[in-house]
Amino acid sequence: MDARSGGMLAALETPAGELCVGLMDGQKLRPMVWPAGFLARLDPLELLDADGAVVAHGGQYLVVFGGYLSPRPSATTQSGAFYVQSYEVSEAPGSPAAI
Predict the structure, then answer these.
(1) What is the tally of structural domains in the chain?
(2) Which domain holds residue 30?
């Protein structure tokens, strides 16, 4: 498990009625498994670390490091998820601050 990914922090309801907090890749939400203790708050969307500190807001670009694993039979997504081991809040590629 050694990969890098990135996208805008977003949350969508799954067909099973559960909330999935992940990273948007164009029009598709990529599911993330966040580190132990991480939580999400809604309205507005915020990602909190294990200490309860806000580490990102909805719409912010994150670069995450970890790896992609196939789903377990009980997983809510059929395509697997990216297991986040570490992250950086960053500028989106192509944004004026990133150039």
Answers:
(1) 1
(2) 3-98
pTM here is: 0.78
Distance CA 87, CA 65 (A): 6
**φ, ψ (nearest 5 deg) of residue 91:** -85, 145
Cβ-in-10-Å burial (0-12, 13-18, 19+) of 9 comes to buried
How does pLDDT run across 39-57, given as a tens digit for each residue?
999 889 999 999 999 999 9
Sorted by sequence, the CB contacts under 8 Å of residue 83 that are 6+ apart come out as 1, 32, 33, 66, 67, 68, 69
Report how far residue 51's alpha carbon sits from residue 93's, in angstroms, rounded to the nearest whole number: 29
